[in-house]
Amino acid sequence: GNQGVSLVSSPSEVVASSGRRAAIRRLGSISLASRRWLTLVAVLEFLALALAFNAAIELRFLNDPSWAQSQFPQLLTYTGIFAGVLSMAFFAVGLYQTHSREGHGGQVVRLLVAFAIGGVVLIISFYIVPTVYVGRGVLALALALGFVFCTSGRFVFTAMVDQDGLRRHVL
Description:
The protein has 6 helices and no strands. It has helices spanning 11-60, 65-71, 75-92, 104-128, 136-160, 163-166. It is elongated, with a radius of gyration of 24 Å.
C-alpha cells in the first residue's frame, strides 16, 4: 500500500520529541531573557559611567565651577568618550556574556581589568588627540567613581535577579 513515512515509531517517542522541543523553546526564551537583562545592565552601566565622569568634574572643580565649564565646553562629548571607551573595555573582558558562571569575585576582577584597559586607552587617546584631554585628577576620580558605581550596580543586580535563570542550561 500507500503508507506515509513516519519519523516516529512509537507514542513514547512522540512525547519525548515534544518534550525536547519544549525544552529547546525554554532555552531560547532563557537565552533571550538573559540577553535582555545583560543589555539593560550594559545601558545602566554606560549611564553610571557618564554619571561618574560628570560627578568627577563637579568634585574636582567644586571651588571653581566656571573654570570647569571653560575647560569642558562640550561636556557631552567628553562624557560619551569616557563612558564609550570603558563600555567597550567591559565587552572586551567578557562582562556581558550570557554563559558566564563566575561569582562576585570574578566579576570584580573583570571590572578591575576593564577599568585598567579603559584607563590606558583613555590616557593614550588624550595624547593622540589633545583636544579631548581631561587631566589626571578628573580621570582618576572618574575611574574610581565609575568602578564604585558599576561594582555596586552589579551587586544590586545579582541580588535582585535570579542568576540561575540567566545561565544557559545544557540538555
